[in-house]
Queue: 3 jobs
Job 1
Amino acid sequence: MNNANNVNAIVQLDNVSFGWPDNPTPVLSIKEFGIKKGEHVFLKGPSGSGKTTLLSLIAAVLAPQTGKVSVDNIALDSLRGGQRDQFRVDRIGLVFQQFNLLPFLSVRDNVQLPCRFSKIRYRKARQAGLTLNDETDRLLDAMHLSAKEIKNKPVNTLSVGQQQRVAVARALIGSPPLIIADEPTSALDSDTRQAFLELLFTEANATNCAILFVSHDASLATAFDRSMDLREINTALNATATHTSTTNADKPRAMP
Amino acid sequence: MIHIAWKSLCNRWPTALLAVLAIAMSVALILTVEKIRRDAKSSFTQTVSGTDLIVGARSGSVQLLLYSVFRIGNATNNISWESVEDIKARKRVDWVIPISLGDSHAGYRVVGTTLDYFEHYRFGDRRSLELADGLVFDDVFDAVIGSEVAAKLKYQVDDKIVVAHGTGNVALVKHDKQPFRVSGILKPTGTPVDRAIHVSLQGIEAMHVDWRNGATVKGEGTDADTVRQMDLKTSAVTALLVGLKSRAAVFREQRAINTYRSEPLLAVLPGVALQELWNLISVAEKALLIVSVCVVFAGLVNLISVLLAGLNERRREMAVLRSAGARPANVFMLLCIESTVLTLGGILLGLFLHYVLTGLGSLFLQQQYGLSINLALPDRTDYLILLAIGVAGLLAGTIPALQAYRKSLSDGLSQRL
């Protein structure tokens, strides 16, 4: 078993169990799960297999009843409300299936949002001596979004594929050590999916950024360092009485 | 955050504009109502100015004021001409304006007076009466009419008018043998002067030449020229406006008149009596104020409802903000900033509307009623009102902001995660 202080791990879960309130059966029960720094992990699993719950635990949105979650060597249970928000914006870039962008902000403003809330990411974004706008434009260029053309456009004039790439640029800005992508490609067609992945990987590799990529499209899995099925590690799914014996005495805390 | 809030408002400009307008309207309304209220009060309490004492037969001060200045109701008794001469002869008295009431024309009161009236009568900010057309009365049968009388009855200089005894609109007894000629028309004053027909004291006597024991004598009546030849002496007047040489003597003179031995008289200070009267009718003023407070309240409720209604469709935005690193506190701030911007915008637009309204209104009021509404910078009361609205707007904004805060807590980072 890896220990939680493994300096090479960006994400480390040990004996984690989570269940919703008023439900004695946990929906997620993971003995051990880890992601190494810079590692690209593909996570698949059917609906209801606990994918979103797992992501929520790693992003400190939910807290497990038992066990320990560490991200970037920070034990999440040691964080309080406001600290969790700060931890999240400092260390994790998030990309969702769709509706990642604020419709009333320009493309540039959308990409720069995390830098407004995280000093660390603002500093990192300007590490290469670039201004924030230059770094934004560089990322947009890297995402094959010609920055000059679209940077000041309202985002709702973009195609879904373009919007998803803007969301990736936002997740990447300020080089967080981890990117969580929750089915970011499900709204894209298969051609753009591959291109989308390539762009994501190129930029993530440049900053040694780990990726936890959730999808039920198994065809994408080959591009990743590691691919796993949540059903293999989530023992709560083939739950027998013994598995659910983990105590539910303390109710799960929904984290802000 | 301010940048994001601004962009967010720009994106929602139609609803934002509605909220701003609602607040602007209520701000403009309350400021205008407040201004009218204050100006009406000051204009009312300055219906007569420059007059130090009003003297009449002994009754109540408000009653004396009502019939002598507002020409409402009737006097209980008259002042004999001897008393008038006595008061006029007092060494601290500068001038007296005798006023004789009791007749009317088409519902407008006829005021018998002397030329001193046009010289010494003051209203508002010590403004004197001015003629819009014609001259003051020179002949026994000359009349100077107020602006409203001229406008409503469409009278011009040299028109003939017939005066009736009594003060009703339909008078049974008309002094139609002695028609009066309009010699002059006064400019609007915004005071009861506009509704008066001024004739000389001799004119009043002339009307009553054929008047004996409450009925006209039978026959043709005396014609105007014969009346002119007569020696018309006034025996009594209804009230007296007194101007003193020095205001410092006002209380001494008041006491002297109140304790006058030959006749029971009453002297009142017009300012005090007007204030008393205003307090009687200030119920209407308070009602106005309550209405405008309600309008402000409605404006704020509208602000809350606009923000609250938008909240549901904005849940996704909140989630996006949260996933991009905004804390629930930031979401709260965002909504607060938005409501602040809306409130401030409403207040500024409301101020602007208020000045446009009073600017246009004062032109109209000046022309129609001679009311002067001055365009002044907001004074302390106005600032307090604006401050109160601002604070109320901020408080109102916290309701949807709290709602957004709670929702963003329960929604997490997205509807999915």
Job 2
Amino acid sequence: MYRQTEIISDDSESPSPGGFGEAGDLIINVGPQHPATHGVLHLVITLNGETIKKVEPHLGYIHRSIEKMCESLTYRQFIYVTSRMDYLSAHINNHACALCVEKGLQLEIPHRAQVVRVLLDELTRIASHELWWGALAMDVGAFTPFFHAFRERETINDIMEETCGARLTMNYFVPGGLMADIHPNFQKRVKEFISLYKLKIKEYDELITGNIIFQNRMKNVGYLSAEDAISYGCSGPTARGSGLSCDIRKLYPYEVYDKISFNEVIENGGDSFARYMVRIKEMNESIKIIEQLIDNIPEGDFQAKTKVVLKLPKGEFYSRVETARGELGVFIVSEGGTTPYRIKFRSPGFSNLSALDHMARGSKLGDLIAMMGTLDLVIPDIDR
Amino acid sequence: MWSFSNIADSIHQWLNETFHPSVAVIFEMIIAGICVISLFAVLGLVLVLMERKVSAWIQIRMGPNRVGPKGMFQSVADTMKLLVKEGMTPSGADKFLFNLAPFIALVVAMLLMAPLAFAKNFQMWNVNIGVLYISAISSVSVISILIAGWSSNNKYSLMGAMRSGAQIVSYELSAGLSILSVVVLAGSLNLNTIIQSQADGWWIFKGHIPVIISFIIFIIAVTAETNRAPFDLAEAESELTAGFHTEYSGMKFALFFLAEYVNVFIVCAIGATLFFGGWMPFHIGHWQSFNHVMDFIPSSLWFFGKTFFLIFVIMWFRWTFPRLRIDQLLNLEWKYLLPISLFNILLVTAMAIAGWYF
């Protein structure tokens, strides 16, 4: 038997989540065990019939205190923990941390490592968006796209497995470059993937994008204006769907992003469909980036020469990258030792989730699930 | 030719010779009951396997392939599992209604089997108001869903039940009106007479455009009535976890599951009977020799072939389309399907009066 805990709200006027709202209100818990939250997110929803009056996200079910753990790990070690934050873009998380440490050490990394990092980042972005596409379709009730998305995602995972030795938590980027050189098959396999992808992306549009039911479910639903997107701190495709230019790859280019041509995808709709289209088009842009770089991987070292024990000088260091979900910031406060004094991650999912209540009010329960799908929430990224 | 009716006749004759006629009738009822229950069970097993295989085929998977040859006995194994599983009743539930609901679903599905003509001269109950009977009894199934949702004492279940109530009550109208168009053309409510009227061609061909329209409306409406995707709002896995049967487990859940599949079979059988001639072979007007060749294919094969084709279409819907939202669902019915079917029934009536059909 468990003891029922009473949740006391600060604001005694508004109904507390554990108590009762106005007459006729229905308070339901979506999660922490629910098929649509894709993890252990807990939403307390106040409903009037089918219409949503309030959404309260309750966090902390998968909080592993990664930030605190990082404080007792060396600058080489803490990167491995960050793969477990946003597990769908592990490479990009590692990238942000590696960049921050390199900034502190003022390390110039070899050109080969830079290009491979960008290539793997973009492959990760495609893999992440593939999974998002399947999961979103599942949220709106279509099961088949999930399997179609996984077909392509598997090929990316195979490429990763060959080069990095892992399929999910890669830990391939280390301060100073890459952990190992790329696999000899890497270029061939990536080219195979590009041709497969170009063949299959048409299926995606036929199956879901062009479907009238899907468009009706997505259009004019979950509207988020550009001002609200700024005030909630949204980033990534969520903000770009509202017409905000916020791509870190364009605004604060890192590695070789300033030397290659690609477009920042911006949609002005602000609704779920705009966010959907941003991600679909972003996959094509990523393919463009990969096509430009795959034949031009320069020869040379894959890792810069670094000391065995890394020591960051005293000071504060910040780096940011564009993950598949938005802006990931890494803030390191160093006291000059071998471990960070304090580390803070600015995760995109946390800020994007905060806009959910604003977007969902007044819409139907089914739309809330679709909106959560278009925010592309990864719960370990929110809780850390 | 081998036929169900010969077997039925010989059994009837033997019973009447051996026993007193009134005792013979009781025996015949028991035999018919056993037939319905076993058909019910077999249909459930076959359709669950078919759904899993069809979905696997659409989703580029293998589907069940471990139990028996090509996974044929997978649903038998699943049934065994469900039979021995504990059927829990939540402590806050209304126990009587909670346990009653799955049986109502089952009984309704069984009752609907009575007037179906499975083959030539093979029908359990040749009732002169067959179509009316079917549309009346099929409305009762919503009660089992409402009871299940209300008595579970679960908010998800309640929402699923309320959605289902709104949905089934609305979609029954256009389902009824589209059935009515065939009734108008055939001039009878008796399923046998309707099948006989298609001896020179099925209504979907004879009634051309208006009947095709009513067939499309029929297939949409029955998909909604059986709570199948894209109209599975009562279950809505990603929204309401499992909707009205969230709290059910074990055999009580299996009964709902079974009733759903048998309902799919029944609505497809009705669709096949009304629009594709039931057991009637593919006949074209007065092409005597062609019709004669078609007659060599047993009538039961024609019936089950057509029915399973329609079931496949409904499964195809489920694994292709996303789900509608509740307001879109009701808009579709009240703003589009109902006016179209009302206009269509007028068109069909004019056509029937003027004799503008083949």
Job 3
Amino acid sequence: MAFISEQEYQNLQHRHRKARVFQRCCAAVTWASVFLLAVLLYQVCADGLGWLDWQFFNSFPSRFPDRAGLKSALVGTLWMIALVAVFSIPVGISSALYLEEFAGKGKFAKFVELNIANLSGVPSIVYGILGLAIFVRYFALERSLISGALTMSLLILPTIIIAGREAIRGVPMSIRYAALSLGATRWQTTWAHVLPASFPGIMTGVILALSRAIGETAPLILIGAMTFVAFLPQGPMDSFTALPIQIYNWVSRPQPEFHELAAAGIIVLLVVLLLMNATAIYIRSRTERRLK
Amino acid sequence: MEQLSPIEFPVGKGSNTSIHKAGMRWGEFVIKIWLQVCALISLVTTAAVVVLLLVESVKFFKVVSPLEFFFGTRWVPLLEPSSFGVLPLLWGTMLITIGAAVIALPMGLACAIYLSEYASDKIRAWVKPTLELLAGIPTIVYGYFALTFVTPLLKTFIPNIQVFNALSGAIVVGIMILPMIATLSDNALRAVPISLRQAAYALGATSYEVTTKVVVPAGLSGVMASYLLAISRAIGETMAVTIASGQTPNLSLSMLESIQTMTAYIVQISLGDTPAGSVGYQTLFAVATMLFLITLVLNIISQWILSRFREVYD
């Protein structure tokens, strides 16, 4: 005697067929997304690899594609990231420490937390407008490296603070209790125990935030990083260009040679980003091992 | 996290214990003030954005009537006769956002379902970082991709497509926000306890039924929040649409034509030589205010959904 009728059996088969099709569709979509990444990288490499030579790294921008290079853009990006790191790392970590270790759970802390969450969702171009109005015009820093670096610092601060707080929250309470019970003050506990224990996590967040700053284009266009810079900046008050700006400049020209130059620039940008991400992953994996 | 209670030392004011001799109190005080000032910077940033946009928009609306700005259908801010109807820019942004959402919302959820329900740990361990890599690629690269790959590809199917068009912009923005939806929704779906799935399977449900009738509804608040965040990101996206979709404010329904988004307009103005203080320059702030408000509202709704509708399981 059959447990189920023929009709029920058909129904069951239909339902399982549906499940299989659904599973395959989901898998196909996922692999398609990964494939897209491969296509994107292939496309960029196919266009740009041929232009990557010493001359490309060691030349200033030019009207002639075969003489153009990204020396000033690369140096500008390095300058800017160094300055952004100087501004944003101490401020970001300090904010995270304050919110986690000192602010308590009152209304003020809640408010600041909400505010930071919202700040991290503000489009980058709005930060550009802020930088233009505040740093470039109001503080009269002009279209300098320091204007760009301050704008970018404001942009990535929420990211650093959120990642920092998460890392600090991961430090077990027992460590704090141990320090406090031995007579350490709140700050001594924070400085000598909480901060070192959470430092790798904080640095991972910082590196990811900095790599975002390297790739951002819109705020720099707003504060007026120049597209044609045939000199190297000597100090923070000099005008500058950066990798994404240079790439944008090349992309927006109609000649196909410049598009290939843009691809070469993108390769350099992606390699820099990849190195930074790899560093972050390395730090993360090392700390995971240490905690075990 | 547990809250530390304020530490009270059993010493009177005049006592001369080692704690007082240590002389740390002043240093601690200064440090605490410094930390507090740092935390205040984020508040100051928000205040600065709001005040700046408000003040400059008020200046703008003294010259241009809000009626013209919000309901006008022509956006010609720099040429005479000028016209300041923001609808074409808003429409451009909507066209891109809707197009990107049509691509990324279902695909992102499908990715998330595959990662959380079907993929083996091994596959997951490298697909998820790959998607995160995709999310970390600068938007300018997507712009390049649209212009040199997507548009030529579309042209082989649709010969009358323009060099700058809304469609390829929408496609790359869709690709751009897809990993964000996939990873955030994956987190939400994985937070659904395994016991719910087991209960459904035990009742004889297929994997399709478990996923669509149990797991996704249970994780819906997280999925919705990721959708809203992604849409807000698509609205604020700048470089890809500037490069791919052109600089032509346009109320056209066709996605094959050049359009201009709010963000692309801001880039156009800041690249040009519009004198500071002119009405053309003020438009920058009026458009930015709209952009800021739209994304802010979306972000707040997304946070509200997360806190209000989150299903908490033991």
